[in-house]
Amino acid sequence: MKCRVCRQPAVIDLRRHNANFCAEHFVEHCREQVRRTIDHFKMVAPGDRVLVAVSGGKDSLALWDLLVELGYDADGLYLGLGIGDYSDESGRYAREFASQRGLHLVEVDLRDDIGFDVPTAAAVTKRVPCSACGLSKRHLFDRAAIDGGYDAVATGHNLDDEAAVLFGNTLRWNIEYLGRQLPVLPARAGLPRKVKPLVRLAEREMAAYCVVRGIDYQVEECPMAAGNRHLGYKEALNAIEASSPGAKSAFYFEFLDKASHLFANRAQTERDGLQACQSCGTPTPGEVCAFCRLVERTAGATPVELTVKAPPL
Ligand code: SF4
Ligand SMILES: [Zn+2]
Ligand SMILES: [Zn+2]
């Protein structure tokens, strides 16, 4: 197996590109994919300040590394979710990455700064943890970006993530979500621009990128992920990809090219119906936004001790 560029021994094969790469040219390939994505979707303009949502996992750390290497002005934001040892370790990886490279990491802790954590919110709302977790992440990333004067929030969603979400939304024909499933969402009153520069890179490629670049990351799955439907969708898509390389990428990018505009009106109508949350000012369809309602509901709740521990490092 030889590198497509230099004919030296390759470290990775990318079947959907019908190409193999050595370490050096694989890194170059990843940078090129991100550069093309940012240019094509006009994600970041020269001089923009970007806030990277950093979880301590491979995708977000690789994204931060790639943006910095490509010359973007990118700070990180780590949100402490209070998911036992898993969160403690994830925070450590994020801090280590930032301090080793002299980068600025903003930190927000759900329990200390807001008053609840993900396990407690899940118990109070009696819903899967990912529901309160996703809501909190979206709200607090937006708020930190606006407060810090950033132009865009960048998240580490990769091709596998986006294809799995699209698969789920298509299975149920979630029209509003399909209208919003774009790699860039423009800024609007009270909300920053959202960008996903890794959509051309697969999960396996991000793991390989971290190994090649010497990035230590949280390899454990979140212990609260059970019940997250996307894991099953990823498995289904991986089975299709194994027999038909490129199917995942075609599914996602052909949707963006040929079908996403069909759902755009619905998303726009939804956006037009939003008003400022009476409590925090975030655009919301009701009087008070879902995050402020969650803060209210969890106020005074006894913190839930997590019984499932992430395995030791
Ligand atoms: S798996 Fe769910 S609970 Fe865990 S970090 Fe992801 S969204 Fe949050
Ligand atoms: Zn090479
Ligand atoms: Zn609010």
Quick structural gist:
By secondary structure, the chain is α/β, with parallel strands linked by helices. It has one domain: Rossmann fold, CATH 3.40.50.620.
How is this structure best described in words?
50% of the residues lie in helices and 12% in strands. The chain has a single domain (30-298), classed as Rossmann fold (3-Layer(aba) Sandwich), CATH 3.40.50.620. The strands form 3 sheets. Strands 5-4-3-6-8-7 form a 6-stranded mixed beta sheet, with helices on both faces. The two termini are 33 Å apart. The chain has 313 residues and is α/β, with parallel strands linked by helices. Bound molecules: iron/sulfur cluster and zinc ion (ZN) (2 copies). One zinc ion binds at residues 3, 5-6, 8, 21-22, 24-25.
Layout: helices, strands, pairs:
Layout lengths: L11 E3 L4 E3 L1 H18 L8 E6 L3 H12 L3 E8 L3 H18 L3 E5 H5 L3 H8 L3 H19 L4 E3 L4 H13 L3 H6 L3 E2 L7 E3 L7 H11 L15 H15 L3 H13 L4 H9 L2 E2 L6 E2 L5 H9 L15
Parallel strand pairs: 3-4, 3-6, 4-5, 6-8
Antiparallel strand pairs: 1-2, 7-8, 9-10
Helix pairs in contact: 1-9, 2-9, 5-6, 7-10, 7-11
The protein binds iron/sulfur cluster (SF4) and zinc ion (ZN) (2 copies).
Iron/sulfur cluster binds next to helix 6.
